[in-house]
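Notebook entry, structure prediction.
Reason for the run: the old model in the group folder had no record of what sequence produced it. Starting over properly, with the input documented here first.
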Amino acid sequence: MGRSQETFNKKEVRKNKEKKRQDKEKKRNARKDGDKNSFEDMIAYVDENGQISSTPPNPTKKREETKLEDIEISVQKRNDEDFDPVRTGIVSYFNTNKGYGFIRDTESRESIFVHANNLQQEIQQDNRVNFEIEKGPKGYNAINVRLAK
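New structure, fully documented this time:
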């Protein structure tokens, strides 16, 4: 008698639960009866070019030796003797209240820190300036900054 009073929605919910239970049972049986994955099937190897491969590397094949000096990491180092310390640039940012800013070098397009103590003349944003470069503890600093003519 209880089932005759079930609404359509309750019947659908019961059918969906039964279907999920049956699907789960089928998957469980397929795993038991199906392919047995071995550890060897799961191993992947990396060849000499860095590509993933399913075949192990050949131990008799001679490896190419790489010299440590030939490996380049990051950008090339700048030789301090090769560049002129007097540069020109445009002030990209300068805060007079805080007393520091940045100059965009016209040659290397680098952003170089400048402090108010290193100014010979007052500067503002977008001014063209001449300056010298000095190696500081956190990078290059602009010193002897003056307006360009």
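Summary: The chain has two helices and seven strands.
The old model has been moved to the deprecated folder.
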